[in-house]
């Protein structure tokens, strides 16, 4: 038999996607599974794209991205998060996932190690495996899913013999919704800077924070931050596949090479849509965020009322809820029973590494009717 890359054999398809595909076969199931806003892309963005299509804008764009889009993107995030980027600090990618993959390919070599707090968004790990890079997990369960400077320092001390080049930092965090204040971020920055470690700061949910303003790691550690951004969550543009990397110019120059040979360039019409979003859609996320916050508050109250343990999320549109211990089931068993018996689908915590076992993730990017149904279903199955 002709061989394929052994590294590909060793990775699995996304546990989130696998479970979503399984529950999709159940007739009448209500899905609160994927990280998909339940809003459509704002009309002005679609109109701008239609105009561009009618004008025949169907050819290649510049590899690093449309120059006007790069400039406008820098200005957009500078304005929102007190950053100091120029067009030359921006790379336009095919979604945030490509941004992460390109960053890993640029700063790591096979045999290197990357720090990663867990539980975590699972897509990081296969990207690392394909690069021959190994994760060093930092278990955050004892600190209510918050990574601390002390935990990073302890982990570095226990792994002095390893080539640790990066730290993947996702906040607000998928699946827990945890975010960080300036003091926490500054303490984390000090440890990373002292040890010469890049931080790949995945802040894709930055515009969906609720009780405190989002502070970007790039505002504190610009020389060491690879800032991962995108419009999928803020502007309900998941299907357009547009992401951004913002970083120091020498790194963007290096990343452009990896990006160019992987994808050539992001789709031209998607870049048109992105330009409209970051120029004329600066407030598009506000109304969505406010609706998500109302849903979050209501769902947290109702789930606690019926006996579920959870930490109120600072951002995202997820709740990470503990499976009732009295049921004595795994997260997969709980979620399968919920889907079959109650026709409601959520994601098992084990999809977010073994450190998420004992929990499940509920997306509240869903209608009020769906959220009412999930509360009733969880009440039925939890008693």
TrEMBL record:
- Might you give the EC number(s) for this enzyme? 2.6.1.-
Q: Which cofactor does it need?
A: pyridoxal 5'-phosphate
* Limits of the Aminotransferase class I/classII large domain: 31-376
Q: Which CDD domains match?
A: AAT_like
Q: Which InterPro entries match?
A: Aminotransferase_I/II_large, AspAT/PAT-like, NHTrfase_class1_PyrdxlP-BS, PyrdxlP-dep_Trfase, PyrdxlP-dep_Trfase_major, PyrdxlP-dep_Trfase_small
Q: Can the keyword Oxidoreductase be found in this entry's annotation?
A: no
Protein name per Swiss-Prot or TrEMBL = Aminotransferase
- Per UniProt, the enzyme's principal EC class comes to transferase
Give the record's family classification: Belongs to the class-I pyridoxal-phosphate-dependent aminotransferase family.
GO BP annotations, alphabetical order = amino acid metabolic process
- Species this chain originates from: Dellaglioa algida DSM 15638
Q: Which residues form a coiled coil?
A: none
- GO function term, MF aspect, one: transaminase activity
Sorted alphabetically, the keyword list is: Aminotransferase, Pyridoxal phosphate, Transferase
